[in-house]
Amino acid sequence: MKKVLFALLALLVLGTAGWANVMAKDVLLVGTESTYPPYEFRDENNQLKGFDIEMMEVIAAKMGKQIEWVDMPFDSLIPSLLAKKIDIVAAGMSATEERAKRVAFSTNYEISISAFIVAEGNDSMKVLEDMKGKTIAVQLGTVQETYSQSLEGVVVKSFQKFDDCVREVILGRVDATLMDTPVAKSYVEHKDFQGKIKIAFEQEITGSGKALAMNLGETELIEAVNKALAELEGSGELDALKAQWFK
Question: What is the pLDDT of residue 6?
Answer without folding.
Answer: 39
